[in-house]
């Protein structure tokens, strides 16, 4: 792979991030095949108004050493994925998240709050049904990863409870 190919990959990743924002998408995954032993996999994810880009490349053949170093640096620069955190509470469904029982009411939980197992931490509205999401464990709310009234997808991290 030449420097020109690497520059093309960077432009490609930038275009994917722009496409994600322009079309109000939350995730995009693409695999580009350059040859039998050479490809680029890109996953662009937007969560809480942040765009993270990860890229992975297979073990290179000897003449591809420089571009792989650039591709390997991209995942290290990406922030830690909250969905992989052991205390992550993930969405059991697609819907709209609400942090309080009704507009203007106090939120169910705030950062730093102590919760008990089974306590409602938020609501997800799906198909006009309000689904109370319980805390899967007792602990302290460390981070709230969603905004009130915003859509969530199945498996998306909602908050971190430790």
Describe this structure in words.
This protein is of the alpha+beta class. The chain has two domains: 3-79, no CATH class; 88-161, OB fold (Dihydrolipoamide Acetyltransferase, E2P). Helix content is 20%, strand content 38%. The strands form three sheets. The chain has a four-stranded antiparallel beta sheet, with no helix packed on it. It has a four-stranded antiparallel beta sheet with strand order 8-7-5-10, with no helix packed on it. A three-stranded antiparallel beta sheet has the order 1-2-3. It starts with a helix and ends with a strand.
Short recap of the structure:
By secondary structure, the chain is α+β, with helices and mostly antiparallel strands. The chain has helices at about 5-20, 65-75; strands spanning about 25-35, 40-45, 50-55, 90, 95-100, 115, 120-125, 130-135, 140-145, 150, 155-160. Pfam families: Biotin_lipoyl.
């Amino acid at each position: 792979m030449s420097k020109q190919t690497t520059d093309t990959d960077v432009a490609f990743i930038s275009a994917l991030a722009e496409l994600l924002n322009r079309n109000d998408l939350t995730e995009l995954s693409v695999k580009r095949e350059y040859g039998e032993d050479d490809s680029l996999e890109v996953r662009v994810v937007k969560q809480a108004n942040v765009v993270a880009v990860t890229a992975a490349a297979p073990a290179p053949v000897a003449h591809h050493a420089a571009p792989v170093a650039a591709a390997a640096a991209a995942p290290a620069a990406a922030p830690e994925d909250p969905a992989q955190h052991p205390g992550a509470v993930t969405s059991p469904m697609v819907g709209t998240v609400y942090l309080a029982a009704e507009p203007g009411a106090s939120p169910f939980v705030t950062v730093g709050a102590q919760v008990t197992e089974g306590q409602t931490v938020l609501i997800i509205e799906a198909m006009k049904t309000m689904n109370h999401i319980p805390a899967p464990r007792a602990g302290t709310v460390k981070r709230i990863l969603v905004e009130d009234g915003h859509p969530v997808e199945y498996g998306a991290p909602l908050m971190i409870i430790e």
